Amino acid sequence: MNKEELLFYDAYEAFYAMAKNSKAFQNFCKDAFGEDFSQDGFSNVEQIDMIFQYIPKKDDVHILDIGCGNGKMLGYLQQKTGAYIHGFDYSEEAIKTAQLLFSKNAEFREGVIGKIDYPEESFDVIISMDTMYFAKDMTEFVSQVKKWLKDTGVFFVGYQEGEVMLKTESKDTTILAKALVANGMKYEAIDITEQTYELLKNKRMSAMVHQNEFEEEGYMDWFNMLMGQTECATQTYEEFKAKMARYIYVIHK
């Protein structure tokens, strides 16, 4: 497969190179999200902290992050739990950084959703924060995830509609929800659309606080990207929620 044909591939290679080098972006992430996970989306520390309740308090816990980027979110989870961490991402730049940052009890692989595989029942927790959109066949990929997950495991997903995925009526009508039902998986879903609206407003303000730093580093293109990503937060919440929705799914076999 030609990597350049993958969704947003070149943009993400450039993004992770910038995230590695830019102090302005690292400072922005801390202000906007509470922690620097090199976020391109909406994974603030409050959302990630929700995962801890599903990580077993035992030795030999294994966590997989689908679309792990440069591994910083997994590193945060490992630091607080001692878990073995595993991640894959299609970005060569991201995986190289993850391998350098986290080498103990960690495995990072270049891989594409639907093309990479793991042994059955390998993981206690599998995480996907804004990455399920990259599955060409979501029902088929959910079947893979179900195979990788231990019987007592949890699949934790951050999922948004209104940009890459068309907005549907509710948490139960998303393409992801339909794929889960088709695979016989049980789920609970939390609507965090309003929290996301507030997060986007904070993300926009945080970007403006660091505008001069971005300019000094020569990264104004990325500052402008952040402003474009958060333009929707200048609308009223009623206008925002008419177009956008965001959910956390907690999924069991």
Structural class: alpha/beta
CATH topology: Rossmann fold
The CATH architecture can be named as 3-Layer(aba) Sandwich
Determine the fraction of residues in helical runs and give it as a percent range: 40-55%
Question: What's the gyration radius in Å?
Answer: 18 Å
User: What is the terminal-to-terminal distance?
Assistant: 31 Å
Low-confidence stretches: none
Number of domains: 1
Mean pLDDT: 95
Specify the CATH class: Alpha Beta
Quickly count the helices: 11
Q: By CATH's scheme, which homologous superfamily applies? A: Vaccinia Virus protein VP39
The biggest sheet, with number of strands, parallel, antiparallel or mixed sense and barrel status, is: 7 strands, mixed
Helix-strand sequence: HHHEHEHEEHEHEHHHHE
CA-based shape: globular
Question: What is the total tally of β strands?
Answer: 7
For the largest sheet, list the strands in their spatial order.
Answer: 3-2-1-4-5-7-6
Strand content: 15-25%
Summary keywords:
253 residues, Rossmann fold, single chain, alpha/beta, 11 helices, seven-stranded mixed β-sheet, 43% helix
Could you explain the architecture of this structure?
The protein contains eleven helices and seven strands. By secondary structure, the chain is α/β, with parallel strands linked by helices. It has one domain: Rossmann fold, CATH 3.40.50.150. A seven-stranded mixed beta sheet has the order 3-2-1-4-5-7-6, sandwiched between helices. Strand 4, helix 6 (138-148) and strand 5 form a beta-alpha-beta unit. Helix 2 (23-33) packs antiparallel against helix 8 and helix 8 (193-209) runs antiparallel to helix 10. The radius of gyration is 18 Å and the shape is globular. The chain starts with 8 loop residues before the first helix and ends with a strand. 39% of the residues are buried.
